[in-house]
Amino acid sequence: MAISIKSVPILKDKVARKFVVLRTVLGSQKLATEAMDMLEKFASETPFSLDQLTGSYIKLVQRGIKVTAVELTKIGDLASSQGKEFDQLTEALLDASTGEFERLKEFGIKGKTMGDQITLTFGKVQKVIANTPEAIQNAVISFGELNGVMGGMAKLPKDLAVIQSNLGDIFDDLRVRILKKLAILLG
């Protein structure tokens, strides 16, 4: 029996709906569960909400980019170092992979196309890369490894917004656990 949003009330929840989308884009319950487990753990350790991270992860996967926890950390550190949200950098990264660099400027990254190569500049660091989506994605994500950027999420003050995000993640985690059990029972 397939699970539909109408058949299980908990699926009306935004995170639960995203779990269903994850299952669709990843092609299996197992892969969706593994991805959600990774995202839950990441959300619990960072200032970003599970809802925001899941939405970003789905956008990346839909474009053929399957990021690991290590890459999520680099993206999160880069976003945090610039005082931006995770999803804002995800959108900028996806735009950049199609040659549109305007949104990267919000993160202090300048992009310039020169034939079959692209120059990305972040602060004093300049990378000349192939003009391919993969090279662009890898270069932007690698900026999260730079001194002064790496660890950016941990440097954020533990203010009320971060506490609220983490508390929200606890409730999201509970909903996801219930969803997983229901999916096993109904699926």
Unreliable segments of 5+ consecutive residues: 1-11
Beta-strand residue percentage: 5-15%
For the biggest sheet, the summary is: 3 strands, antiparallel
Number of domains: 1
User: Which sequence of SSEs, written as H and E, runs from N to C?
Assistant: HHHHHEEEHHH
Envelope shape: globular
- Tell me the helix content: 55-70%
Give the helix tally: 8
On the 0 to 100 scale, the average pLDDT is 85
User: Quick one: how many beta strands?
Assistant: 3
Strand order of the largest sheet: 1-2-3
Structural class: mainly alpha
What is the CA-based Rg, rounded? 18 Å
Query: What gap, in angstroms, lies between the N and C termini?
Result: 5 Å
Question: What would you say about this model in short?
Answer:
With 187 residues, this protein is mainly alpha-helical.
Descriptive key words:
187 residues, single chain, three-stranded antiparallel β-sheet, 8 helices, disordered N terminus, 3 strands, mainly alpha
